[in-house]
Amino acid sequence: MSGKNLLLLSAVFMILGFPARCQQTPQVSMSPTFMPTFSGDSIKLSCDNSTAGVTWYFNNAKVSQEGQTWSIAAAAPRHSGSYQCESDGRKSDNFSISVLDYLPPASLSIKIGQPVMWKNNPFSLVLQSEDSLQGWNCWVQKGGRVRKITFKNKQDEGDNRIFQPHHLSDPEAIYWCSDKTNQSRSSPVTIRTSEKKVLLEMLPRPAMIGESLTLKCLAWGTDKISRAIFYKDEVIIQDGDSSDYQINVIESSEGKYKCTATFTYRGRTAGQPYTETSDVQELFVHEPPLKAVLSADSGMTCSCPNCPSAASYRWYHKDPGQQWEMKPSVQSYIEPSVAGSYACRAVWPNKRTLLSNVQTCEFLPLCGVRDLFSEMLLYSM
Predict the structure, then answer these.
(1) Span 196-288: which CATH code?
(2) pLDDT tens column, 138-165
(3) Model pTM above 0.90
(4) What homologous superfamily does CATH list for 22-100?
(5) How far is CA 177 from the centre of its chain?
């Protein structure tokens, strides 16, 4: 067919409402858009404007990843680099990710409720930071769409912000908060729902290697569980009358978990036992981020040998059985003024280290110190 005829045919298609197909260049996008990305974040990369048959590249090298999406369940510094996707012979521009080996400067956690809930049950979240939360907003991603949260109920307790989002009916939702510049943000919280009477309570984030984790098998409307069977990757790992399963998280803890509960109800609804199996919940693990080091001699010094300079420090104190309370000092050295347990961390405007080892100050003014390095601290601190 001559060039003149091709032009004529294209004109006819346009007149009839069939424009010639314009092939778009693929583009890599991130969901949620966590910039910066921190150790332990769960993200998904998508190859937009692509058709079937997508090829992925990491740092210009072809990888075995298939499909239009690439899920990174627990980001780590090794995931830092440039990503590209190719479709129909067209390659996207580089999409760069830098995974920081730190924690976000604020933490978001569940105050009322649990990471896996029955649909439309109420729950509340608490946002915590050592610095001011003025100007911070919170967000939710459901069904691939992100929107700003309209607070149904919000209150402040000191430096903490507590809010109750609208009841959740979606299978999964990811919540996080950020400052007005979007340069600082909180850790994210993932909440899932189920329509089954039995739930397996799982973390709202990937687990950190070295921490202790308790899985709970819950039955709707009752705590009378006579038998609970826990499974990992379809293999029974515990069968008995305890509805809890303890895990000391190591790399091999990663897998798919579920539980089967045999339970009864109290009062007029009592009768024959029910037995039901929960939905499967997947556990992902990651290495701990950088951790501050607390050393003690005549006083206490907080340091982070592998961290950049220009850090300030936060100090925490607690008495036995109490919660951590932040001390006013931001220096790397303090002289304890009261007995009790102490810990510290290094902080910057948009990141912070994991809480240090714990030191206990027993006697004042000399303050003989013993190391409680083995005490496991919560990731949310």
Answers:
(1) 2.60.40.10
(2) 999 998 899 998 665 566 655 678 888 8
(3) no
(4) Immunoglobulins (2.60.40.10)
(5) 12
